[in-house]
Amino acid sequence: MARNKYCEKFGVAIAMKILVIQNSVRDPIGLLGDQLVQLGAELSTWLPEQQLMSPNGDFSGLIILGGHMNAHEDAQYPHLKQVVELIHQFHAENKPIMGVCLGAQLIARAFGSQVYPHSKPELGFSPLRVVEALAPELWLQNCPLDLHIMQWHFDTFDLPVQATLLMTNDLCAHQAYRIGTNIYGFQFHLEVTPDIITDWLTAKSEWIETNYPQLDQQIQTQIQAHAEGAATFAAQVAQDWSALCLDANPTQKIVSV
């Protein structure tokens, strides 16, 4: 297990176990996972395409990643109903939850909102701006004015009545939100690496090929301009969110290192 600051100070490792739901083989946890492991987390990944049931365990937090399906397509993707049940379970236990793209939409669904096709897809790095300027999150307080993060979505969602909108842009209003103190939804893909993005481009649909013929070149240029800033942002989010996992689980198992 990678050492975090607590480990360096006290010579112990904290077994912070995170359940990761990976809804698509093409959308792993990437940068976000690397940062969480460096902070001392153990990641247990459920890939419903390959595993019928989610892993068992005493988890400190839940992360739900992106996927190509709509958040309400239970008939075609039966695991979505189980994901919603897990969101309810972790919320009832006051354990932190993070949703990315489809994951953010599933959290919105779990809290009573609808998910539906957006008027226009959002593909590539797009600018984001902070809505809640006085929010306590350091990743919002330190957010640069020129932050651009990768997007790849065709759907959007109604903001749950329990949610506070944190980030937005001109194309898709609901970009980041918080419910309570430890549930976060991110419409954008803060987890992706350049390699993950390149893989998406190789698998894009015929519709995208026809309607966005210059997309590959545009995104490769955007990677050069924005990937470093996006990675810094992801690291800050991971650090703050991992702290929430520890705060919510004060009796975490501690082992000598």
What does this 3D model show about the protein?
It is a single chain. With 257 residues, this protein is α/β, with parallel strands linked by helices. Helix content is 35%, strand content 25%. The chain is built from 8 helices and 12 strands. It has helices at residues 5-10, 30-38, 79-92, 102-110, 138-141, 194-202, 206-211, 215-248, and strands at residues 12-14, 16-21, 41-46, 61-64, 97-100, 115-127, 129-130, 148-157, 163-168, 176-179, 183-186, 254-256. The protein has an 8-stranded mixed β-sheet, sandwiched between helices. The chain has a two-stranded antiparallel sheet with strand order 1-12. The protein has a two-stranded antiparallel ribbon with strand order 6-8. The longest helix has 34 residues, at 215-248. The chain is globular, with a radius of gyration of 18 Å. The termini are close together.
